[in-house]
Amino acid sequence: MERSLVLIKPDAMKKGFGGAIIGRIQGKGLKLVAINMLHVDRALAERHYAVHTGKPFFEDLIKYIISTPIIAAVFEGDGAVAAIRKIMGATDPAKAEPGTIRADFGSNIQENATHASDSPETAEKEIKLFFAGREIFDY
What range defines the domain where residue 47 resides? Predict the structure, then answer.
């Protein structure tokens, strides 16, 4: 069974969309196996977005993700990574297909409601980053 990390970002949290987003993913048959509401600190944010270090938008990305608590969740299912990315839609909500999470809940390319792992390998790293020392359930 494949697993993927999902982050419900500050814009979605401020608007009260956390439960709806989790429900949409579960509604597509993916199993929620871990969940944590947390306030991301700068060190975690920099590790998570390390691939963007040195890019012009890096600092704005960090400030954004640490601005308010988020939800980190792990979902499991056959082809979970691809399935979740399809449910979420394009990174830019303006380009996301109608009915996707980002089209319905996102505002712009940065405030796009969610993050999801882009590959099984990335998912494994991101899950370890956000769930170190926390139980991931198998049921």
Answer: 2-131
